[in-house]
Design brief:
The protein has 9 helices and 11 strands. It is of the alpha/beta class. It has one domain: Aminopeptidase, CATH 3.40.630. Strands 1, 2, 3, 4, 7, 8, 9, 10 and 11 form a 9-stranded mixed sheet that branches. Strands 5-6 form a two-stranded antiparallel ribbon. α1 packs antiparallel against α2, α2 runs antiparallel to α4 and α3 packs parallel to α4.
Length: 301
């Protein structure tokens, strides 16, 4: 209830505060990020109360935007998985899934994971960049396509338990009838709000070169670079192919583009807080991803 009240006030305040240079409401985006990376959510660890609060916040935002759930049962897709110590029970891990209908039957899945590390050693790991930034961007992208009808059907997927081994996206791709869904692309976001060099990477075009040209053609915000790379096999940790939820689509031979930044000093540390986010860069990242998603939606047949 407290989360819902905060959300209502936040949405009311920022409803008319859109910035002309962006395709989204930058004020709302910033406020969403501040809330989802706050101490009150205690790091959003899978199965925790803070994780459930984050999920409630996401669902309430989707409802306010008028975006319908993917599943007949509602927005939530629950699942369990084994751990080293015990097991996460059904209901403890939950993806949030919504859908925006297009003019084609083929589907693009746009995704981000909303879980993080929780409480460790008495410290809160808020995960502002990892991955409240991607989660909030996904809300902005969902709002954009709800107002600007896409060609493809778009599934909006907020995955849980990414930090536990990409569990949420694995459940998603294995639970759905992929042939029926006709998924032609995954656009995934994980850590998009910080870069000392103002550089965002689009990973995946080494595997799926047909995706590069539409992205290359988009116009970019000033003092912002969108680079290709971090997807060369055999390059160890520099190959990001398997390092976030896009990997489970790749394993099903579904093309992907993963947007992210290079690691920074606060990666997986309790200092990954809202005050470390570069808001100017973050807003430009979200704008670039929206433009890339639009271009890919138009280009893919």
């Amino acid at each position: 209830m407290i989360v819902c009240r905060i959300l209502f006030i936040a949405v009311l305040f920022f409803t008319q505060t859109a910035f002309a240079q962006y395709s989204f409401n930058a004020g709302q985006l910033t406020n969403d990020l501040k809330i989802l990376s706050s101490d009150s959510l205690e790091g959003r660890k899978v199965g925790s109360e803070g994780n459930a609060k984050a999920r409630t916040y996401i669902i309430t935002r989707l409802e306010l935007l008028g975006i319908k759930p993917l599943l007949e049962s509602g927005y939530v897709q629950t699942f369990s998985f084994p751990q080293t110590f015990g097991q996460v029970q059904p209901g403890d891990a939950s993806n949030v899934l919504a859908v925006i209908e297009g003019t084609k039957k083929e589907t693009i899945v746009i995704s981000a994971h909303y879980d993080h590390l929780g409480l460790l050693g008495g410290k809160i790991y808020n995960g502002a960049d990892d991955n409240a930034s991607g989660t909030v961007a996904l809300l902005a992208i969902a709002e954009y396509f709800a107002k600007n009808k896409p060609s493809h059907r778009i599934i909006i997927a907020f995955f849980d338990a990414e930090e536990m081994g990409l569990r949420g996206s694995a459940h998603f791709v294995n639970a759905l009838d992929l042939a029926r869904e006709s998924i032609v692309l995954n656009i995934n976001m994980d850590m998009i709000s910080r870069s000392d060099k103002n550089e965002l990477y689009a990973c995946g075009t080494h595997h799926y070169p047909q995706l590069k040209k539409p992205i290359e053609k988009i116009s970019l915000p000033e003092k912002f670079s969108l680079l290709f790379g971090h997807d060369q096999p055999g390059s160890g940790r520099n190959d990001w192919t398997s390092q976030s939820d896009q990997m489970n689509f790749h394993l099903k031979k579904i093309p992907f583009v993963y947007f992210g930044v290079e690691d920074h000093a606060d990666y997986h540390r309790p200092t990954d807080d809202f005050d470390k986010v570069n808001l100017d860069f973050y807003h430009k990242s979200v704008e670039a991803i929206i433009r890339a998603a639009k271009a890919l939606d138009k280009a893919l047949q």
